[in-house]
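BUG: 3D viewer hangs when loading the predicted structure for this chain

Environment: internal workstation, default settings.
Expected: structure renders.
Actual: progress bar stalls at 90%.

Input used:
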Amino acid sequence: MKSAEEKDSFLQGPKYLHVAKRLRANVENGLWAPGTQLPVERELADTLAVSVNTLRRAVGQLVAEGIVQRRQGAGTFVAPEPAPPAEPESAPTGRRLVGVLVPSTTYYYPRVVEGIQRVLRDAGVGVVLASSKYELDVEQDELQAMRDSGVQGLLFVPNLHLMSDPQGYVDGLRELPLPYVLVERRPPAPEPDDPTSWVGTDHAGGVCLAVRHLRGLGHRRIGHLGRLRTGTAEHVARGFDDAAALLGVDVVDGAVAHREVWGAAEITAYVRHCAEAGVTAVFCHGDRDAAALVVEARRQGLAVPRDFAVVAYDDEVAEVGDVPLTAVSPPKSEVGALAAQLLLGLLDSGGDAPSHRVEIQPRLVVRASCGAGRGVASSSRTAAIRV
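Structure tokens produced before the viewer hung:
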């Protein structure tokens, strides 16, 4: 008899190995630098939507590989790098530096940073990485620290969704004495000649992919469990409304709902309402909420996906649940790489390069939670560049 971690046909290998792979990538991509402490177990387990026991097995795997070290009474730390050999006194020291400021180094943005670092590393450009932790005061402090550190350019994910005047903030960035490119953010109300360069995901396009897939599987009554006050919540919500109108979805009162936080009681009530209203599929903004939705649906006697199909947005931890989630997968690495390429162009041109506004469409990764076979997946990806 297979264990709970092994019995799902769409999840190859024990769950802890998938978690270990994610943690290993964070170290290899420089998100957790040598010698730094990993987040505490409960925080990291919640971020990855796994149990503490699964996380401990994953960390134990990295300990065995020598990637991290447990220090009794202190926590878990990334193994320090060996001291590099001394450089000759005549070695050059003037390498260009780019500041990268993201809201989080544990969820969504690690793969964005990986794309950035890959391009900059190939160009011989160093990276100064910082996180704002979704706090405006921290964001301002980190921006100033980067300027003080002498970076020549900036790749920046501002917390526009937390600001009272986000467009005014974007306009004020033009006063920065260095070139910059916004990443996964765009001016919310720009004038036609707004010069801001940005690269982001076509969130509305990704939502439409998901809803079209569910309609193709025969679902007509489709709900949307969404979020409020996140960097992408407004784009995703608008994308669902537009896709539902375009594709003839029967929108049921109460089945399209948005909250800042979905607690257990709210998800219980939502699933009960959907079941009573004949909703057979839900598009959910966020892997963790989607995983909780699946658990609650099964608790209420609904078979997933036979009675209740679920598609998530983000594809961060969608594959590690008991029922691996079909998910819209934003092109995070590609967004980071293209933003870095645009910034390099600005640096090389002395700031005279034309502005770029770039959207990249996500892909839909089909797994067990919607009922379609493994081979039925959309991988369409387009970039629309307006200069």
